[in-house]
Specification:
globular; binds BIS(adenosine)-5'-pentaphosphate; 9 helices; 5-stranded parallel beta sheet; binds magnesium ion
Length: 216
């Protein structure tokens, strides 16, 4: 089962992808996470991506498409994968289709999380992440057992560099202009499932689970 988990910044893509990945044993492929890891490791890709990510702009296709193609070629993707944060433009969706043709694979579902702007702002402003193991939290909705510390490795939690108010406003603008048109693109391809992203993390997990269990 090959999935795209689609939605605006802060919709809960990473949170739900983690759940699907564990439940259905499929790798979670987040272009945002891969780019942040490239920045952390100081690679050429990371250096090129850093300023664009800090401004909330899209990183160029020559970087992103190469990373995705390399990742999808790996053995753990042969029995399914979850793409999170990719594709983000019609051009990326066309490129994905070409990559999957080459690998003799196809997309099965696009799960589009539908969340209002006011909820997005609350989710992003309270998000905290463990810089060591990558586990995500929210100061109100998914708080760590010990304030400010990761439950898994006890590392002090941090706020993402692009979760500042100014950058969040730009990320939402970029989403509406360049990424939201993909909803119609995949609706026409008849693989779109719109899922309400409102409610608790577990409410949304149940909605997704119902779709995937009934169709896989
Ligand atoms: P990326 O990392 O993909 O960020 P994004 O799309 O902006 O989405 P987020 O990761 O911010 O949110 P999410 O939907 O994963 O929400 P989460 O689960 O964390 O991209 C970052 C940047 O990288 C881009 O701006 C761009 O520069 C670059 N980039 C990436 N991919 C690219 C591409 N393909 N092309 C070009 N550039 C690219 O949840 C958010 C918070 O809410 C968490 O604290 C969570 O605990 C909480 N939460 C989640 N669900 C709920 C719930 N139901 N109730 C309450 N709280 C909840
Ligand atoms: Mg994410």
């Amino acid at each position: 089962m090959n999935l795209i988990l689609f939605g605006p910044p802060g919709a809960g893509k990473g949170t739900q992808a983690e759940f699907i990945s564990k439940n259905f044993q499929m790798p979670h492929i987040s272009t945002g996470d891969m780019l942040r890891s490239a920045i952390k490791n100081g690679t050429d890709f990371g250096l090129k991506a850093k300023s664009m990510m800090e401004r909330g702009e899209l990183v160029s296709d020559d970087i992103v498409l190469g990373i995705v193609e390399e990742r999808l070629k790996q053995n753990d993707c042969t029995n399914g994968f979850i793409l999170d944060g990719f594709p983000r433009t019609i051009a990326q969706a066309d490129a994905l289709s070409t990559i999957l043709d080459k690998l003799d694979q196809k997309l099965d579902y696009v799960l589009a999380l539908d969340v209002s702007d006011d909820v997005i702002v609350k989710r992003l402003s309270g998000r905290r992440t463990c810089p060591a193991c990558g586990k995500g939290y929210h100061i109100l909705y998914e708080s760590p057992v010990n304030e400010g510390l990761c439950n898994v490795c006890n590392t002090p939690l941090v706020q993402r560099d692009d979760d500042t108010e100014e950058t969040v406003i730009n990320r939402l603008k970029v989403y509406k202009e360049q990424t939201e048109p993909l909803v119609e693109y995949y609706r026409i391809n008849k693989i779109l499932n719109v899922v309400s992203g409102h409610g608790t993390i577990s409410d949304i997990q149940q909605r997704i689970n119902t779709i995937l269990v009934n169709r896989s």
